[in-house]
Amino acid sequence: MLGGKFITLGVTGGIASYKAADLASKLTKLNARVHVVMTGSAQKFVAPLTFEAVTGNPVHYDTFASSTGFHVPHIDLAYNANILVVAPATANFLGKTAHGIADDLLTTTILAANCPVLICPAMNVHMYANKVVQSNIERLKQLGYYFLEPESGRMACGHQGKGRLPEVHAIVDRIVEIIPPSGDLSGITVLVTAGGTREPIDPVRYISNRSSGKMGYALARAAMLRGARVILVTAPTSVAPPAGVSLVQVETALEMRDAVMEHYAAADVVIKAAAVADYRPRLVAEQKIKKEGDTLVLELDKNPDILMELGRNKRKGVTLVGFAAETENLLENAREKITKKNLDLLVANDVTMPGAGFGTDTNIAKLIHPDGGVVSLELMDKYDLANRILDEVIIVSQGTVL
Ligand code: CTP
Asked: What is the number of the ligand 1 atom nearest to the C-alpha of 322?
């Protein structure tokens, strides 16, 4: 993941600085070495001790301090860093940095940096829209600083608009996009499918299913954070895609099939988490179907089984992982699918169990091997399950590509 990466995290004085503690914690959990530099105003919002506790490292704020563990703090914090992240970044910080002013430890460290610098501005909507602030941002972008735009929404000051610090996972995604992680899947291409396909009936209606896409997106994010190149072929979902993956958006099963076949040649691992519609309306009305008789019969044609097609044409060295969402006879149905589709691993779950299946953030899965072996997992977060599945992929692929 981010093991071995040294991240200097600058925190300036805005209400969003409490979110920086969560960011520091997430980065530390991803094995990065996180060193926090706080401005004087930031310390009025959050105590340095909070950052010290979550990172396990002393917090830096005094340019002239002598007992920081570093010889010359602003030089070492800049020189050792793989990336310098400022979140939240205030208008004051942007103004000073855009004009080379170095009057505290953070702005001095920024001037000494020769690594990528990612700035995440967060402030009141009117301050953010202010022409001076915008021109400072423009200037910094032209100078090569990376930015993550603030989000829109309700702010602490009561105003509505653009200026909120993005969610922590979006900041982490942007970081790994800028400094790609290395991990046990480095050099491997993983093709993941996600979401529920939509099969149009007319211009306003479609047939679909309850898949939220969360499991597939968690797999894409986890594989990317473990160093894989990830191609995510996705049907529509309401989940934000992880940055740093190649996104291929599709709608129908036929479009998903074409996209999967196009990218299959490049893949070492294919994980089919998508819920693909088994049937599609034979005729798609050009105009909205009007309400007329008491009943309406839709004739459906069978969609191709994408995974079965991959299984039939499985290349040597490719690992194929399928999903089976069942409501009864879980093991029996799952074992049949693993043989029929020539899979190396099947993730089966009973979607009727509380905490499992569609829309939830958790899942209860059984990992089934072609020899009949079953690993029964307890209820867990979909992201943790994604990592567990990837661990199993590495085991089943031993001796092939990985
Ligand atoms: N799958 C696929 N193409 C289809 C249907 C399913 O690639 N047309 C894949 C899914 O992405 C999943 C696996 O096959 O990885 C199993 O999907 P599931 O819907 O559980 O099973 P089906 O094969 O469709 O069988 P049934 O609906 O009868 O349970």
From this structure: 15
User: In Å, how far from its chain's centre is CA 201?
Assistant: 32
Index of the ligand 1 atom closest to the CA of residue 309: 7
Top mutation candidate among 278, 309, 358 for ligand 1, by most atoms within 8 Å of CB? 278
Question: 231 forms bridges with which residues in the sheet?
Answer: 191, 246
Q: What is the mean pLDDT of residues 44-64?
A: 94
- Residue 154 · residue 184 · CB < 8 Å: no
Residue 276 CA, ligand 1 centroid: distance in Å = 6
To the question of pTM greater than 0.85 for the whole model, the response is: no
Q: Give ligand 1 pocket residues (Cβ under 6 A).
A: 253, 272, 274, 276, 278, 303, 305-307, 322-325, 337
Tokens 């990466």 correspond to what residue? 5
The preferred substitution site among 192, 307, 352 for testing ligand 1, maximizing ligand atoms within 8 Å of CB, is 307
Confidence band for 68, pLDDT divided at 50, 70 and 90: low
Taking the C-alpha atoms of residue 148 and residue 125, their distance in angstroms, rounded to an integer, is 16
Q: Kindly report the average pLDDT of the chain as a whole number.
A: 92
Q: Which residue, judged by its Cα, is nearest atom 3 of ligand 1? A: 305
> In whole angstroms, what is the distance from residue 92 CA to residue 250 CA?
43
SS3 319: strand
Which atom of ligand 1 is found nearest the CA of 340? 23
In order of their start, the domains of the chain are 6-178 (3.40.50.1950), 189-397 (3.40.50.10300)
The pLDDT tens digits of the residues spanning 284-328 come to 999 999 999 999 999 999 999 999 999 999 999 999 999 998 888
Q: Is 115 a residue of the active site?
A: no
The tokens for 109 are: 């460290």
Q: Residue 394 C-alpha to ligand 1 middle, in angstroms?
A: 23
Of 143, 157, 240, 289, which residue is the catalytic one? 157
pLDDT at residue 401 in the model? 47
What confidence category does residue 40 fall into, taking pLDDT thresholds of 50, 70 and 90? very high
Task: Give the integer Cα–Cα distance in Å for 231 and 252.
Answer: 18
Query: What does the angle CA 53 – CA 57 – CA 60 come to, to the nearest 5 degrees?
Result: 105
